Amino acid sequence: MFVLTDEAIESGIDAISGYIVSTVAERTNRSAEEISEKFYLSEAYALLNNEDTGYYWDSIGELIDKFINEIS
Fold it and tell me: pTM above 0.85?
């Protein structure tokens, strides 16, 4: 049985962050390095990193759209 521990949440956040960075870099034709720097300073990352929002569990597409809007 899967138990949602702090460690599992942190691992999920790391994986989701990498996915968002690579997806946005591809969609915007920017380097992953540039997008990574912007993502870790963004409101979208703050929402993902906040366990109370639940974004680590759902809404990856919504976070991608939010982040793209932030950097556009």
Answer: yes
